[in-house]
């Protein structure tokens, strides 16, 4: 019998994981026109008909009152700094475009921090290449004495941009903790599956955990289980989707390892996939097929495969 | 003693596969305008707002409530955001209910939405799996849901044909629902022959992917009459969980749903759900779940769901109509879906369900759930 993990902490580097998520975002009418007009080098704002307040860039709803009847306006390219800060990527400022009632945020270009002050006049700097994004305006530069501009009705507004592609790459480092650390260390080092003994039911909890989910008492006794088990639930995956790790078709299986009282999620392969639903069902006996990798992850098991009839004794 | 709470205004968008004319916030505004108009109120008369949405990964906007409150004119009001996967809408309604039942506020606006066309759906949902333990095999919750349906087939007789009948019924009902966007009659044979996605789940067992929003106005008894002489009174509401990967999880009968139902039925005086409820709205992310819910909600005994659907009892003209709105088969904006179920149940007892009204409905049950089937809730509303 093994000892509790707190007496043998396993120090593993965190699990690195990246989510790479594609999006197509809908800006809506006001922001859609703002983005569409960026290529015409026009700054589009919106005036709330009921409150009279003007937002630049344009908004579908009045930020102060929630008013929904908005008329689009063309805003001047000049404004005033209302706040600023130095970042590693340059100077970022809050700006009040002339005629607007709300601030917006943008870069300050061609100026040092010491030159800036609240109330300084600025003007927009357009990008050389037109883009349909807020970065069509690269930023704002100091324009001392620039006359105060006025908003005016937007003539011949472009159709709103219906969709904007977007992407998020999210990088994570997940800590194993002593229980997961120990289990995955055993998988990588010894090709052995271990959990902790449940304090409520006779059997092992995998993944191991500090507190039993049913009795709410501390676990702490390690228990090795064999790499054979019984399929409790299965489905045959044909759907392909962004972010998928396995190539369909494959069998998604929830497997109760012998001696465990919880399920392990894995794939079942090594069968004629055209007959997958006949060959693998709840109750099918399976065993792990280990890969050559010893990374200390569930993927060190390549897949599970059905145990042929009469072969069970040999595998145990 | 908790105060009585009524639903006095309901609103939802005309759901669709993709709305390119409105932003996420604009979508919410449409539903809010409809709910406020229905309650004969303006946003000024609302004390507090609950914003309910699905996972942030669906729409790439963190803390969307800050955007939504501006768009609905709710700045400077109390606001909380609730998120609980597919059950989000009901969890949000529950948060609003507590605020009034506990005496904190008189009127609460609950809004729920998702604009699923904007992100990578299955990829996003798959992140509910433990990154160390199983995520690499996740197919959203579809692979998992199909796997346990397969297990229920053997033990409870939830056959592919029985689930196909759920699809046929809900698709047919959705034809009469003006807010549904899938308007297509299907046959059992169509469902059985449709493309397997995660067998036994096939294409026609699966609801659409939708953009949509929903909103309700909850009111104290004191102020309800201002909005309507026929509120949908909340007789009980609960949302329960079970452990993520505990030894006791069989996934055959939904334990958290049975628990929630037991608790809520007690407070609502329900002893025979099949006989007492006039209409039921369940949130079926796949057809197989509707069968399972029949049993967990006590509409029939475990093992009798296939017989119940085959008997026609859950048809709109049956003795226990389930999803006369078409359920999720007509539209499935996930974050809003559970609130839509509550709205449809409320509409029935308020007598404003239109073409899919169940005659003289007085007592209705709504069910919702999230997570990988470990979060389940119910609400009972009455005329």
Strand order of the largest sheet of chain A: 5-6-7-9-8
The largest pleated sheet of chain A is described as: 5 strands, mixed, barrel
Lateral arrangement of strands in the main beta sheet of chain B: 3-2-4-7-1-8-11-10-9
β-sheet strand percentage of chain B? 15-25%
- Gyration radius from CA atoms of chain A, angstroms: 31 Å
Could you state the order of secondary-structure elements of chain A as H and E? Answer: EHEEEEEEEEEEHEEEEEEHEEH
Q: What's the CATH class of the largest domain in chain B, please?
A: Alpha Beta
Distance between the termini of chain A: 20 Å
Which fold name is given in CATH as the topology of the largest domain in chain B? Peroxisomal Thiolase, Chain A, domain 1
Largest interface (CB within 8 Å) is between:
A-B, 73 and 68 residues
Q: Name the overall outline of chain A.
A: elongated
Question: Alpha-carbon distance between the termini of chain B?
Answer: 21 Å
Rounded to the nearest angstrom, the radius of gyration of chain B is: 19 Å
Q: What percentage of amino acids of chain A are in beta strands?
A: 35-45%
Assign the structural class of chain B, choosing from mainly alpha, mainly beta, alpha/beta, alpha+beta, or little secondary structure. Answer: alpha/beta
